[in-house]
């Protein structure tokens, strides 16, 4: 390999020994493996995570996967970045070290022990929260030591309306972790714990409200018991408070993300979907769709389709002027799942209203559906599109009908 440097557009060359042998990019967090070679931490972790057990350069076996920070090389790289900042090179930040298992275990023990002072327990929780926020790997290390069990115990040890700092920190950390099925069952089967979490949805702090909504969504989504799900979604004001979080100003994007997830989980209970409509979920979903990222848009559209399956939801979406144009526009624009949900919602709406059929045709649904049935989209989406094409047949212009017989008359398999 060349000992010198590949020119950059910036007009500066990166020294060869500053480049990761795997990515060939400037190392941001150089670490040494057991063979003595140095790699960028993210690159060597990805290498090992995909099942490789040898050193990429030497091909020698890696019997010990401990990664030792190369502080000297990192300082040299930072000095080089500073020396070349006139070329647009930015100084790499000092990386945060991954969570040490011994430290994590000690912090959890300190937080759980009621014999410790409140200040000591709170300090341990804040340190755990900082580690959990830093990286997915840290969260994985923390969850290895029964962290969720410890944190749930702290959270529900004091269920007064006034949230203590211990409760607050425990709730914040828990919102970063998925609960196990047994943990979800433990929480969902305790009415007092559910009532406590729901009461926090009206807390003065938006962070507390969002964290509580996140934990509730986790519990509802992870609970297999239909009875427990129904009991949670039947609580007074839960939909109003979740919709309130969803409607929070976009300057706090996590509120929208968590609000959409929680609303979807609650709407999986069919008998209580009307409560979501009464709480204003229809307006909130339509108003937020344009600002949603891919994953959030998919979940929002799945919720729209669920609400369109009840009369109250259909009527509410039908009365919103943007519903049909927005759903038609989304087809084939975001993802296969988004297309499937949007088409399913349109099918429900158009099945309930001839006015909406004419509106959908007027805003170009015919072209979208014909493209959809010829695309590589999911079979479920295509079946819904075929059913919608057949339903809209009487609303199409005569020329469009003649050109679309093959699609409109296709055999339709119910979904």
How would you characterize this protein structure?
There is one protein chain. The chain contains 24 helices and three strands. With 415 residues, it is mostly helical. Helix 13 runs parallel beside helix 16, helix 19 runs parallel beside helix 22 and helix 21 packs across helix 22. The N terminus and C terminus are likely disordered.
Itemize the secondary structure elements and their pairings:
Elements: E1 30-32, E2 38-40, H1 41-49, E3 68-69, H2 71-83, H3 101-112, H4 118-134, H5 136-143, H6 147-155, H7 165-174, H8 181-188, H9 191-199, H10 206-222, H11 226-233, H12 238-246, H13 253-267, H14 273-278, H15 281-289, H16 294-307, H17 311-318, H18 323-330, H19 336-352, H20 354-362, H21 365-373, H22 379-391, H23 398-403, H24 405-408
Antiparallel strand pairs: 1-2, 1-3
Supply database-style keywords.
mainly alpha; disordered N terminus; single chain; Leucine-rich Repeat Variant; 4 domains; Herpes Virus-1; 415 residues; globular; disordered C terminus
CATH architecture descriptor of the largest domain:
Alpha Horseshoe
* Radius of gyration from CA coordinates: 27 Å
Helix-strand pattern, N to C? EEHEHHHHHHHHHHHHHHHHHHHHHHH
Q: How many helical stretches?
A: 24
Strands, total number: 3
CATH superfamily of the largest domain: Leucine-rich Repeat Variant
- Relative helix content: 55-70%
Which strand-content bin applies to the residues?
under 5%
User: Which class do the helix and strand fractions yield?
Assistant: mainly alpha
- Enumerate the spans where pLDDT stays under 50 for 5 or more consecutive residues: 1-10, 404-415
Strand line-up of the largest beta sheet: 2-1-3
Shape estimate: globular
Mean pLDDT: 88
Distance between the ends: 58 Å
Text of the CATH class of the largest domain = Mainly Alpha
CATH topology of the largest domain: Leucine-rich Repeat Variant
């Amino acid at each position: 390999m060349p000992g010198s440097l590949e020119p950059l557009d910036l007009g500066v060359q990166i020294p060869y020994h500053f480049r990761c042998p795997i990515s060939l990019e400037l190392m941001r967090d150089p670490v040494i493996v057991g063979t003595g070679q140095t790699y960028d931490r993210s690159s060597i972790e990805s290498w090992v995570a995909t099942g490789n057990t040898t050193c990429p350069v030497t091909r020698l076996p890696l019997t010990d996967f401990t990664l030792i920070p190369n502080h000297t090389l990192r300082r040299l790289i930072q000095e080089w970045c500073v020396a070349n900042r006139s070329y647009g090179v930015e100084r790499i930040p000092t990386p945060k070290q991954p969570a040490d298992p011994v430290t994590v275990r000690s912090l959890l023990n300190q937080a759980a022990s009621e014999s410790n002072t409140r200040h000591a327990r709170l300090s341990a929780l804040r340190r755990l929260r900082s580690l959990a926020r830093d990286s997915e790997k840290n969260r994985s290390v923390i969850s290895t030591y029964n962290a969720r069990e410890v944190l749930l115990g702290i959270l529900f040890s004091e269920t007064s309306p006034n949230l203590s700092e211990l409760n607050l920190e425990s709730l914040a950390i828990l919102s970063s972790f998925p609960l196990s099925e047994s943990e979800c069952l433990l929480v969902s089967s305790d009415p007092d714990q559910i009532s406590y979490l729901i009461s926090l949805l009206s807390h003065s702090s938006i962070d507390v409200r969002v964290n509580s909504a996140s934990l509730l969504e986790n519990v509802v989504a992870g609970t297999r018991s239909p009875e427990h799900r129904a009991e949670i979604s039947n609580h007074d004001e839960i939909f109003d408070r979740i919709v309130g979080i969803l409607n929070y100003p976009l300057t706090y994007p996590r509120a929208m993300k968590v609000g959409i997830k929680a609303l979807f989980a609650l709407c999986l209970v069919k008998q209580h979907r009307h409560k979501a409509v009464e709480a204003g979920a229809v307006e909130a979903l339509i108003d937020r769709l344009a600002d949603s990222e891919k994953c959030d848009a998919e979940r929002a559209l799945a919720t729209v389709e669920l609400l369109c399956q009840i009369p109250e939801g259909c009527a509410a979406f039908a009365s919103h002027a943007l519903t049909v144009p927005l759903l038609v526009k989304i087809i084939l624009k975001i993802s296969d799942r988004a297309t499937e949900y949007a088409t399913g919602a349109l099918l429900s709406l158009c099945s309930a209203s001839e006015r909406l059929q004419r509106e959908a045709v007027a805003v170009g649904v015919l072209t979208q559906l014909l493209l959809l049935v010829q695309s590589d989209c999911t079979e479920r989406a295509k079946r819904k599109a075929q059913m919608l094409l057949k339903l809209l047949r009487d609303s199409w212009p005569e020329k469009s009908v003649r050109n679309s017989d093959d699609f409109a008359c296709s055999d339709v398999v119910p979904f």
